[in-house]
From TrEMBL:
<keyword id="KW-0411">Iron-sulfur</keyword>
<dbReference type="InterPro" id="IPR000445">
    <property type="entry name" value="HhH_motif"/>
</dbReference>
<dbReference type="Pfam" id="PF00633">
    <property type="entry name" value="HHH"/>
</dbReference>
<keyword id="KW-0227">DNA damage</keyword>
<dbReference type="InterPro" id="IPR029119">
    <property type="entry name" value="MutY_C"/>
</dbReference>
<feature type="domain" description="HhH-GPD">
    <location>
        <begin position="35"/>
        <end position="186"/>
    </location>
</feature>
<dbReference type="InterPro" id="IPR004035">
    <property type="entry name" value="Endouclease-III_FeS-bd_BS"/>
</dbReference>
<dbReference type="InterPro" id="IPR003265">
    <property type="entry name" value="HhH-GPD_domain"/>
</dbReference>
<keyword id="KW-0326">Glycosidase</keyword>
<protein>
    <recommendedName>
        <fullName>Adenine DNA glycosylase</fullName>
        <ecNumber>3.2.2.31</ecNumber>
    </recommendedName>
</protein>
<keyword id="KW-0479">Metal-binding</keyword>
<comment type="function">
    <text>Adenine glycosylase active on G-A mispairs. MutY also corrects error-prone DNA synthesis past GO lesions which are due to the oxidatively damaged form of guanine: 7,8-dihydro-8-oxoguanine (8-oxo-dGTP).</text>
</comment>
<keyword id="KW-0378">Hydrolase</keyword>
<dbReference type="InterPro" id="IPR023170">
    <property type="entry name" value="HhH_base_excis_C"/>
</dbReference>
<keyword id="KW-0408">Iron</keyword>
<dbReference type="Pfam" id="PF14815">
    <property type="entry name" value="NUDIX_4"/>
</dbReference>
<keyword id="KW-0234">DNA repair</keyword>
Amino acid sequence: MKFSNTLIYWYLQNKRDLPWRKTKNPYFIWLSEIMLQQTRVAQGLDYYLKFTSNFPTVFDLAKADESTVLKMWQGLGYYSRARNLHFSAKQIAFENGGQFPTTYKDIIKLKGVGDYTASAIASIAFNEPTAVVDGNVYRVLSRYFGIDTPINSSKGIKEFKELAQSLIDKTQPGTFNQGIMDFGAIQCKPKKPLCMFCPFSESCVALQKNLIDVLPVKEKKIKVKKRYFNYLVIKTKENKTILSERKGKGIWQGLYQFPLIESNKILNKEELIASEDFNTLFQNDVSISLFNKKDIVHKLSHQHLYTQFWVIETDEQKAADILWNEIENFPVPVLIANFLEAYKPKK
């Protein structure tokens, strides 16, 4: 009880002024929690305001087409979050009559919602005493209690969840959960935590035993896979290009891209032209130049994309049916969005 009291007192003095903190509307809380999965508050805030402005109710989000949702999500990454959000919005609006599920047990059934998100929504919107556990919570609890169980192990996930659940203030669970998240984000930070001004400094095991830089412990990361992308940026004399939607279940599903040749290494111009995929696409003479003078490395959680953008100018290309000034209407990966921002084709 002392831990929760101290934490809540700190939170009430130091909490961040965030728009989703000013409502009990589960739709807005759900929206914010989905956006903040793997995204910093500073980055997610503008997207939250944009979504709530364009989709003020779950019905508005449900009625939008997926391409519009993905376009508005562009730049936030991890696009499966947007697809799952849209899927669940349609479920809530059209199958549940707009009624948001009210318990942890039902909230976690929504597509894209896990233990953390369900706990946050249930506690904040419906006052259900279910503890949240995310990176901030792992850090606070592992340091304060001196726990070196790896936070990404099955044992660690269970241990920290049970500990958080035992500490939660059952009379104000939403306040406790938001408090421990804010405490980890702005006080007990990953680097250079503010230990000198910490209300737990006298009882924190990590501080007493000089383990601040050691805890929390993580098991060794999965090996990062390298992939090599060659985008063919086509420009015809009619100022048209090719964009196609990514299918399947891979990264960027539902987003649009230029024709892509994936290789097992970085290609030079001669190797690209000699490839079967290139010759299938182009039978006539073309002018080809490499836009980026050095490789663009786009880092995802388990893969690094070494990317080259090849500008292909040609008199005609039958499959090129999209005008350059229409490209901005299509949702694209941030990798391509950044290229388009830098590339200004000749008129």
